[in-house]
Amino acid sequence: MPHIQVLDSHVADLIAAGEVVERPASVVKELLENAIDAGATAVTVEIQHGGMTYIRVADNGCGIPPADVETAFLRHATSKVRTEHDLAAIGTLGFRGEALDAIAAVSRVEVLTRSGGNDLGVALTLEGGAVVSREEAGCPQGTTMVVRDLFYNTPARLKFMKKDTAEGAAVFAAVQREALARPGVSFKFLRDGRQELLTPGDGQLKSALYAVLGRELALGMLPVKGSGEDAVTVEGFVSLPACCRGSRNYQYFFVNGRFIKSRLLMAALEQAYQNQRMVGKFPGCVLHLTTRLNSVDVNVHPAKTEVKFVSERKIFDALYHAVLGALDGERRPPQADLAAPARPAAHDTVTPNQTFLTMSAADYRRAVPPRPRERTWTGTGAEAASRRTEVRQSGGLPLHDFARPVFSSPVRTAPEPNPAPVRAAVSQPPPVREVPPEEAPVSRTQAPSAAQAPSRVPEPAAQPAPEPEPWTVRGELFQTYILVEQGERAFFIDKHAAHERINFDRLKAAGYQPMVQLLLAPVVFTPAPEEGAALLEHLEELERFGFSCEDFGGGAILVRQCPDYVDADEVETTLLELAGDLLSARRTDPDGVRDHLLATMACKAAIKGGQKNGPAELERVARAVMAGEVKYCPHGRPVAVELTKAQLEKLFKRA
């Protein structure tokens, strides 16, 4: 057994650095917390190359006294905790005294600081945790920290860093969280020489919310104010039920000014929205909880983002009732504006008086009702016959028509010469039973048409396959489930799930080549930093799916074109869903990312539950399921449920 020995101080420092400093965003978070604890009212954060080569955090706080500058970079050196009793009621953001030591251990640090009452400040340079130089310098009151070449002395760490855009987005998110936590502090964020955030620092949470999250989200928020037992107060903003998002990335919880991640608070928030939000949507919030310092323990996680409450029930009840009271007090009905312009963002130049020529595609469709769609064949008789053969070979509608989820009802198609049920044809077909004409409109068989399966040609000497049991579409339940009867069995087919799988298989096999539409008014929206970085990293992949996106500055994304089956007012929601897929598949291979995107696009293009479809469309979906080609949707849900006659008779006590 190896001997136990004390680690070298340098190795111990690197281990401690690994607990506190994981990426550039960790450095910025720790430096921002120090600036806030120092009483700063204005903080500037500047990064280059995602923060890997350069980070600068400057504040106008109290500064560091000259005698304490070197001491500040020693491990467990802090001015915020004196005795063990102070740990029971922590009121500052930092308290362990590990951050500066951990940062200096894995980077090159330059400090320029001047405290009040001193004419000159101190310039200190450290490399790998060791002091290189110290000298007096003229500087304004406050502290400026410059961190260069992060992880330069730990190359193994560098391979775990993501691209500069992703690391920069994580830093931006850290600054945004601190800006929402401290609306009385003005935050400025610069990335590669470009300003991306500036908050007024006027002490109004609404102003910080507007600057950080953008105009659209700010206007969709409700004020919340409430209190509970044990001096618990809740204040902030929550989103209107109609403005819920597709992910939880817009939920910000702060306890005594500290950003935290808490399943307890998340559950309380979403419980308050019970039966008021759409399924699959999540409310956004910026909520500040204030409680007694000794009622919460913040010393449970190295990153200090997880806390423990003495009484979780009181915290849950306080937040739940505060949010529920705000939602119950909001009685404004949803507004239907048929001529509303495209949603303006902070950088939009769209005027309220949009002319007809600048109206978005979605607004045009709402203002000018489309004529009922009619599927017809054009050209000569030979061309029309060739077109029908092409459709049957593809298993239904051609690709661009499958990508259109809106169908007229009833769907009118060009009459075919033989209205009888379609059966598998071969070069030398075996004898088959002729179907009387009166059975043609309702009877269907499981076998595909001749053009559908040209490869299933039996060998001349082979025995013909047994005739599949015919099936019949008996109707539709709740405009969601197709009812199919086959012998003594009944099948309930989820038309959305089945059509989604059909789309997915076709897109994956043939390559996705969508029909696109150029938007009359480009869509501008501001996603969460991580989502925005994911979209910008995969612009070429999005282009393949019909979206033409570009960076619009300030965290905003501009969309100039989209697939033809996505309305302009659905572009933002669709791209946010794609961003969520990209983030969830960030650790998988490129094929996994592509499959995630294909599944989302197939879902968007599929017919929806509750949508009225014609008999031809229902039969097309049922044919794929009854042929065994479709069993599960891309997300793993079954597409059909079987019920036998015996099971049904047992329910009615007939058996």
Automatic annotation (TrEMBL):
Residues 366-470 are annotated as: Disordered. Keywords: DNA damage, DNA repair, Endonuclease, Hydrolase, Nuclease. Residues 366-376 have a biased composition (Basic and acidic residues). Residues 209-328 form the DNA mismatch repair protein S5 domain. Pfam families: DNA_mis_repair, HATPase_c_3, MutL_C. One of its GO terms (biological process) is mismatch repair. Residues 473-613 form the MutL C-terminal dimerisation domain. GO terms for cellular component: mismatch repair complex. Transmembrane segments: none annotated. GO terms for molecular function: ATP binding; ATP hydrolysis activity; ATP-dependent DNA damage sensor activity; endonuclease activity; mismatched DNA binding. This protein is involved in the repair of mismatches in DNA. It is required for dam-dependent methyl-directed DNA mismatch repair. May act as a 'molecular matchmaker', a protein that promotes the formation of a stable complex between two or more DNA-binding proteins in an ATP-dependent manner without itself being part of a final effector complex. Belongs to the DNA mismatch repair MutL/HexB family. This is DNA mismatch repair protein MutL. It comes from Candidatus Intestinimonas merdavium. The gene is mutL.
